[in-house]
From TrEMBL:
It comes from the Bacteria. It comes from Prauserella muralis. The keyword Signal applies. Residues 52-266 form the SsuA/THI5-like domain. The keyword Nucleus does not apply. Keywords: Signal. This is SsuA/THI5-like domain-containing protein. Residues 1-25 form the signal peptide.
Length: 330
């Protein structure tokens, strides 16, 4: 299911655009996206009811997009990069949001995409701050190697989350091919572990609260394979980046401000989850781990992540990072 939210400013712009479309149709002209009074085109951005996806809602709530004169359409896509990739490459979604490691393999195979540097990324360096971790129940599991012969659930299989856990198992001396990876909706994973249907699985805020209530344990931070590298990032198509440099720079500034604000006040994330993500207020209020938001992820950090993926067979060879990572204000 895809849900769309427009800012009040962009809704008005859409009305003006609709009138313009009728005139263009009458004259045989081509349509265009809604534009703000500052000349910036409406930009569609992925967002979702998980802690690390909330920055566009934070930016909207604090008026940062309006400060930039950027009309936005915030789109909920339930499916991560798997769903977003065809939308972004076809021009149906302007800016995607997902694990950076989910996008890099696609770039390595020729997908015309650009990851955005210094644009509100999420770092996850330890379990204390992680909003994306592997959870389990059986006390016999003490390290990644113990996942051999076990069933592990993810919201999406075959992507970066599975790949990074495979790498963790291998680095711990285990055989990742002996782990059975299965797909479950992320909100159902804690209960499935508690009931013994799976042995371990991905835990994301706000559903980590459910895991804690069930007394589940935390094994590892999925994003902690390469500390300091971006776990979560924003990205777009190369063609959209070329055609809309002003919109992209405005987005980077607004989302960067939101990252700084959320890092200082995690309550902004909880408010966004409740108000826009429609998460139960009691659940949103108890969200503990929101990840480590930052507006400073240089191109070199994306390059390190790309090197890690290629060295471990999780992505084919990549060109120089400056060809697939873009800093709109550089």
């Amino acid at each position: 299911m895809i849900e769309r939210f427009r800012s009040r400013r962009s809704t008005a712009a859409a009305v003006v655009s609709a009138m313009g479309l009728a005139l263009l149709a009458a004259c045989g002209g081509e349509s265009s996206q809604a534009a703000s009074t500052d000349g910036l085109r409406e930009t569609s951005i992925d967002v979702g009811p998980f802690a690390n996806f909330t920055l566009p809602w934070v930016a909207q709530e604090l008026g940062y997009f309006e400060d930039e004169g950027l009309p936005v359409e915030l789109v909920i896509n339930n499916g991560g990069a798997t769903v977003q990739l065809p939308l972004v490459t076809s021009g149906k979604l302007d800016i995607g949001a997902s694990s950076a490691a989910d996008v890099i393999p696609a770039i390595a195979t020729g997908a015309p995409l650009k990851l955005l540097a210094n644009a509100g990324s999420v770092l996850t360096e330890d379990l204390e701050k992680s909003s994306n971790m592997l959870i389990y129940k059986d006390p016999a599991i003490t390290s990644a190697k113990d996942l051999e012969g076990r069933t592990v659930a993810f919201n999406t299989i075959g992507g970066a989350q599975e790949a990074l856990v495979r790498l963790a198992v291998e680095e711990d001396g285990g055989d990742p091919d002996q782990v059975d990876f299965v797909q479950l909706p992320v909100q159902n994973i804690p209960k499935a572990i508690d009931e013994g249907k799976v042995d371990a699985g991905q835990g994301l805020e706000p559903f980590l609260q459910q895991a804690r209530e069930l007394k589940l344990r935390e094994l590892l931070s999925i994003g902690n394979i390469l500390p300091g590298a971006p776990e979560f990032a924003y990205w777009t198509s190369a063609s959209w980046a070329d055609e809309h440099p002003k919109e992209l720079a405005a987005f980077q500034r607004a989302i960067g401000r939101a990252a700084v604000a959320a890092a200082k006040d995690p309550g902004l994330v909880r408010t966004a989850l409740e108000k826009y993500g429609k998460i139960d207020p009691a659940v949103a209020a108890n969200v503990r781990n929101v990840g480590q938001f930052t507006d400073e992820i240089p191109v070199a950090k994306f390059a390190e992540l790309g090197d890690l993926l290629t060295e471990n067979g999780l992505a084919t060879s990549l060109p120089r990072a400056d060809q697939w990572v873009l800093d709109p204000q550089a």
